[in-house]
Write a structure and sequence with these properties.
It is a single chain. The protein has 193 residues and is mainly alpha-helical. Helices cover 87% and strands 0% of the residues. It has one domain. The longest helix has 46 residues. The radius of gyration is 21 Å and the shape is elongated.
Amino acid sequence: MRTAADIAFWLALFLWFSLALVGGMSAMAIFPAARELPLSMEGYEAFIAREPVLGRQLVAGYLVERVFEFAQAPRAIFAAVATAALALGIVLASRDSAPQPLRRLRITALVCAIAALGASFVAIVGFRVADRKYRVMAYEVTRDEKWLAEALFMKAEVDRAHAFASRVASAEVVSILALAGLSAAAAGVRRRA
């Protein structure tokens, strides 16, 4: 039973980690590529013509957004599976497992990862609200030039929301890595015992 819990933990942790990285990695691939393409989006032509760099970022953002949406729910599911498997593994191995400080550190890393995951859901909502307003204003530039200043003002809000979301995502990845390292150390202690 403990072996099954360990396998479930490592598999869920790996999948959680992979999904935590996929959005950032996609953004790292899509945004540079978008800078070099002659992109266009119906309804945004005036904004793209006036602000070509921001226009390309807008197009790339639409593409990357789908990756984040895809990964959001599975991350929560794999986090829950990893949490349950870790808890089960600790209970099953309570007599002969790693020393208490190592167990506490693993639990702390897990709590930090879950907190970062929760914060990422909040950050994504804040980012989406700002981004939707920005997109509406950028779209309106085609009908009336006065919206350009509003769109540029909203872009600063999007950038702030993005910076917060990026910090939260980094905290999630670092916490998962810490949990993986501490869990590997705990497994090593168990083998030596």
